Fold these 2 entries.
Entry 1:
Amino acid sequence: MTNEITTLLDQTATRLFGDLVTGSTFSAAEDGVWPEQLWNALEENGLTQPLVSVENGGAGATWRDSYVIVRAAGYFSVPVPLPETIAAGYLLSQSGIQIPESPLSLISPPEYGFSLTKDDQGAWRLDGVLPRVPWGRNVGYVIFSYEDMIVSVPVEGCTINKGSNVAGEPRDNLTFSNQAVEAAPGAFSSTQIGALIRAAQMAGAAERALEEAVSYAKERVQFGRTISKFQAIQQNLAVMASETAAAGCAAEMAFQAADYGEAEFEIAAAKIRNGEAGDIVTATAHQVLGAIGFTREHHLNLTTRRIWSWRAEFGGASSWALKLGQATIDRGGKNLWSDLTARYIDIKEYTSE
Amino acid sequence: MSAFRFDICRLPPEAEALRQKVWAFFEEELSHMTPLQRADSWDGFDRDFSRKMAAKGWIGLTWPERYGGHERTALERYVVLEEALVAGAPVSAHWIAERQSGPLLLNFGSEEQCHKILPGIAKGELVFCIGMSEPDSGSDLASLRSPAKRSDDGWLLNGAKVWTTNAHEADYMIGLFRTSTDPDNRRGGLSQFLIDMKTPGITVNPIVDLPGREHFNEVVFEDVHLSHDCLIGTEGEGWDQVTAELAYERSGPERYLSSIQILLALVDELKANPSERGTIAVGELMARLATLRAMSLSLASMLEKGQNPSLEATVVKDLGTGFEQTLPDIAQSLIDLEPDPDSGSDMQMVLSFLIQAVPSFSLRGGTREILRGIIARGLGLR
């Protein structure tokens, strides 16, 4: 995490989010107003397509570099589909599909309720419902993987049934009728890449919750001293801090692995570990902040409600644990350690400057 | 943004090349060991085996050549450690000396002490024990009372140390003693000594631990005479020296891999008798294992760069001991078998041993509560 592009992306994201994601941004977003100024600033500063090559209009960064953007989006509870746009742009660029200049959304392959067929001219047509599309009402395209393809669906002309997650982020059902879509071969699964970005967002959100809890404990006075002086509070916050550190490491590990190709193991581990940490982080933060944290007035809920939503999106902890556990058991105890260490062999170069 | 700094890294090619050699050596040398024996982890004691590892050049890997070391990287050393732990290699005869006592002498010892001691450790010939805890001083280490008083020709030691791992086998102890008392500075007045365990006046009394092993001891000092050159570092600065030493003790992969044998046995048991609940549990454990390894590796890489990640090491130790401590409980909850030390089943025997061994994991080298207090201080809470 020490090279120049990472530092630049980190500083840019932190500055923009710090300046442009304010209390009024959230209240407007919850009233359904699209934060145009924020989105334009993200586009102008090259944060929306970091993974796309420079010649194709992106920043030419790696997943490893881009971790800081997605983490910061989670830290600042940024109310736009930036992580989805980054991930969708990556899938499109891997499949050679032109990346549209608009916010993009990402979903897991729908399991039922839709059909994807070729018409007489050999063009792809989509019918049916794409469920719980993040920011469906605001994006230009929805991207998902289906069998061995990446599918890009223009939202224009569909019927939008608005919905949301518990954090109030739009999760809309989009109904299509004979919609012309683009599809091209692609290796990456949109469930995996979705879990990857959610893990990093959760890691960022955990950092924010930790900061909120620590600073509140240092200010709040009861029994004649700040509650930070009580060992019970100290021990709980120490656990929360360690879980937060683990969440960040798991997510960053997965982003690094994504640069090396097949990364299902690390992505599964990151989603599971961030879910586990998220349980502890949200519970501890609310316990420390007491009644004031249990209000919509205090901003802690912007973070904790997102963690509760994100931990279920793109595969909950159990579904990922089932995959990871099965893969491990199939290989047996004898191979467990050598498989794990083999995943970390540096096939390009030793990158820790 | 982050309270702590972890740089996620991958190992350099030379470290991975070394892994293959280390793995092949353990495969051959340890083929006779049962999973139960391997479960003893870094408590397994075998001087011959330590000498063999030394002959391969794998002890004192990072130390200067003039002291018998091999001037390799901390990341290569890390690979040797983690492969030894997963293989269940009996490394106890050199582990403490290599991890803690050697680095302490390199940092604070005299040239003479380094020349006298380090080559012996690197050859796998010198066993060390650490004398810190006393009957009335555990987590509150600064309260220790065993005195070292100046005498005409050196120092006179009295008192007692307790829970001293390998004292009954050790050639030397590095002992922390009180050389002066200052009511205003409890941490002052402590000094470290290099103590030949053959010195007259030292009595070692074994203490049987919970699983029934004789690993740790009470060590009684009765008018033990030491020469001047046995003082390590500076008189009265023992606290700071010990704090630096504990950073080494807390940073290694032994803080999350101590009960890895039960995970390996559990995976095989679930392969033979599958259950969805078991599969999910293994997935969750693998997520924790992979994350802990990434964090632990990050510490090694920071040490290699000359940084001192002592706060991060405390975080990894707290998370890691929690993981290795919970493994037998999870295994037992998933498998409908009694822990049976005489069953002949690897799973049942390893389980019998480890459920009794794990309570020590969050005690040794600083209790969980002490570690969390250090983390809380790192957060600015105290």
Entry 2:
Amino acid sequence: MVQFTLNGNPCHSGAGDNALLLDVLRGDLGLTGTRFGCGANQCGACHVLVDGASVPACDTPLWAVAGKQVVTVEGLGSAAAPHPVQAALIVYQAGQCGYCLSGIQISAAALLARNPNPTDAEVRSALDRHLCRCGSHNRIVKAVLAAAQHMPPKPTESGA
Amino acid sequence: MNLAFRLSTDAAALRAGPGGERVRAASLAVNPRISQWLRFHADGSVEARPGKVEIGQGIVTALAQIVAEELDVSLARIRMVPAGTDTSPDEAVTSGSLSIQESGAALRQASACARALFLDAAAAQLQAAPETLQISDGEIRAVSDSTSGGTSGSTSRTTSYWALAAGINLDVDADTAIKPKAPADYRIVGTAAPRRDLPEKVFGTPRLIHDLVLPGMLHGRVVRPSAPGAHLESIDSSAVQTLPGVVCIVRDGSFIGVVAATELQANRAAEQLAQLAQWRETRELPDAQHLPAWLRAQPVESKVVDQRADPAIVSATRTMQATYSRGFVAHASIGPSCALARWPADAASGALEVWTHSQGIFNLRTDLALAFARAPETVVVHHVEGSGCYGHNGADDVAYDAALLARAVPGRTVRLQWTRAQELAWSPVSPAMRVDLEAALDDAGNILAWKHDVTSNGHGTRPGRAKTPALLAATHLEKPFEALIAVNAPLAAGGGAERNAVPLYNFPAWTITNHRLLTMPLRTSAMRSLGAHCNVFALESFIDEIAHARGEDPLAFRLRQLSDPRAIAVVERAAQLCNWRDDARGEGHGRGIAFAKYKNTGAYCAVIAEVDVAREVRVKKLWIAVDVGLVINPDGVRNQIEGGAIQAASFTLKEAVAFDRSRITSDAWEHYPILKFSEVPEVDIDLISRPDQPAVGAGEAAHGPVAAAIGNAVFNAIGVRVRDMPLTPERIISAMA
């Protein structure tokens, strides 16, 4: 049994230490916002936050998140209380098919948490692991830069 | 690929009206009843039921705007019903940038007719002349001062769609004589209404087919042959049968798959099956390094698609020739194809139900019925949005796979998602193309005659159009269906390989010939812009070569030979956007221009590309001027143009399906790279709005011009012409050598 925190709530899974986080999220836990794209850490569609870092859930065994904070797109925000990146994606109409957006938001949120004022190049660099086939890249970058202006102030102390 | 395709082969429909009118009326001609398109409800909502589907392009938002506009109701009242073969009008395939023309025109006319019926009913009830009534967000009010009824209270002078809905019969044919609103009166059409689908996509709310969970659902996985054309010689699957969760293994000839309780269990079982399967390979693939030569060596069916004769050619003093090409291109959607299927528990009654992200649910139904020897009415196909769709991808194939697996477990739903390798190696691919161009010139370098020869596999093996099903696994069965050789749509419907091969320039003479391959080692079909990507690359590159040979500014050279004012306007606008000057750049920095009118009937698009060429080509910026006629949603058009331009840059710089003599080897992202965030150019778009012109689609307009503008910019930067796409570092180096 692996215990961790999922979107702020205690969570445990008996899927086995080596089960992949993506399978557990989409399967037993029923959180389908995190998407399967390649299963090989090459497209970014399945990224989630693990203790604030953006990681591919398809390449993360369950044991690696034991005791950690896991945040999926469903936990990042909601229509009632969107994360600044989510609000900006909608304002900028930054998306077409949307398949890649879950993973991209996760990396964008991780970036803004550690760098509240990124440059255009820094945003692109942070999102370079994420493939988008519809060509929404520039709108997404603009949205992330705009979201940076609306991030809540950083906590004064770092670490957990 | 669309309704125009079907009607262009139907002589009666072609006679239905002059020019573009028949295309615009097509969807309504096939589905004439208003109730097929619209339903009004007492709760204050209107259901709109397009047969075209959302494939990531934002069409559902634009269609909702059209309905809200004609009915004079707020956008929020329009509910867009997902398409299903049991609920929607048959609008064939969502493709060819025709959804605004076909579905939009039908919904507009159906809405105008419904509005008229409601006004008649309201006039009777309110005892007022219909023309004196006003509609505001569905409320119908008599505003005339003539109080013939003697009552002056306002309550008796209003009614609404919602109050009248139950009494209005919409099971009547839409009257095509009723005129929709004049564009000058538009208040909703033409605004940048936000996309209806985006919030759920942002918040990760289940919406896509990949997220769909049905009660008691099982999971499938298929094992594809070791290579195209390979036969399954033997497999001992007894050990897999007993793996945890495995419900059954399904084999039919060379089709093999597994059904299990969970996706993970299905994956594990399929991995073992793949290890155990013994294949006999039968097909040799072409030499990927020499595709232009291979294309020329194949048996072909040749057809002159357009010809313009002029005796002036005898005064030609010289000719120029060049050959351009590109490789096979993959759809490469981020989400692998996915489907769900369920057979009735009792085979004799009930329907086979399929959930799919296919572009053509009715066409898929036709082929499923063919493949399973069932009546089409006993197959119900529901559309659910999928990952981005850019043409005939694996959506239909995976739906058939799911149905083959689900047949073994009647009454249970089976969900099947392809692997990444299956998505990249087994979806249809866009054909490799070769374009041979020849121009006859006079002493001054003026073009007297033009010859354009396209050699390519056909760009269409879509389902629903042949006597046998066009579904991948249908050719793998023990009693296989015949494999189809890809064909091209008639030029009247936009053509396939020959799309945009006919110049829009006023050359005195030309001969445009399409050579369709009669062999098909890799399964090819329609992908965004079809032949236009390579034809426009070739044509617009060659124009540049001739201008350069004459020493003339390529912008001026083009403008001199265009006569369509809308074409001239986009070219001039693009030049203004970037302050085009005919100055030599070079030393690794360059600009190039290109233009096309998509399909020669659609959107006008001119592009200027700015590139840096060092070890590789970096596209820094694209300036794009576009004219799609009436703009339904300016932000939607910009989104489609920008997305198309970035995708086209990716095709042009990076993309070619890789294969050895047996199989596709580009079956992972590391072997099929696409443009990344750090490589994407800045895109500056200017829309030329023409409310008096019919609205045309935007999704494919940029592909050809972007490719050619990049090629021309590379020449401007380094003085070397690279005529084979993709413009990889290896190609640049070998062209410079």
